[in-house]
UniProtKB/TrEMBL annotation:
Protein name per its UniProtKB record: Pilin structural protein SafD
InterPro entries: Adhesion_dom_sf, AfaD, Dr_adhesin_sf
Recorded name of the encoding gene: afaD
Keyword hit for Signal: yes
Matches recorded under Gene3D superfamilies: Dr adhesin
Pfam families hit by this protein: AfaD
Keyword Mitochondrion belongs to the record: no
Keyword terms, alphabetized: Signal
Amino acid sequence: MPIANAVEKLQTTLRVGTYFRAGHVPDGMVLAQGWVTYHGSHSGFRVWSDEQKAGNTPTVLLLSGQQDPRHHIQVRLEGEGWQPDTVNGRGAILRTAADNASFSVVVDGNQEVPADTWTLDFKACALTHEEA
């Protein structure tokens, strides 16, 4: 009797941290923690957002407020071993064969942030060996 192999699925989780108040927010303040898990064969992970990039670094994003799109907060993706995807300009890459990886979304630079609501929308994929 043949046994079918299940297709491995990428799992992503993004947990938003404590709400912060309008005003001064310090560089490096953690806004969210993310995890990616993939049990299939892979050479790493990519995490990115389709939000507007801030400058030339693919890991730095400029988020617009939901209540007023003129309100902005600049954030960055970071984590141990994660590097900016300078080849494709899409977020951050972690080269690893491990099944799990974590990353953080942090405030990029000291900022004065107005009161608003911000949406964090990230995508993730496992890299194949050809993409390594």
